[in-house]
What does this fold into?
Amino acid sequence: MEATIVNLRYNMREVLNALDRNETVSVLHHGKKRGILLPTPVNPKKINETDFFGMCADEKETVSSVFKKIRGGRYCDL
It folds into this structure.
């Protein structure tokens, strides 16, 4: 399916129905293809099947302490 910017604005239901039918939607702007909307996978991966799950399994610290270290404080007190 091809959809213009106007279609996205006023006929979003038709675009979403096309995605529900597992169709890709090409987005056109002034007659030129600007992007593609892809439907989501039918069976997304479970969290423990992703590449990031367990990547720091050997860490001895808690998750919250690691995040505090990564993010740092709001202000830099030197």
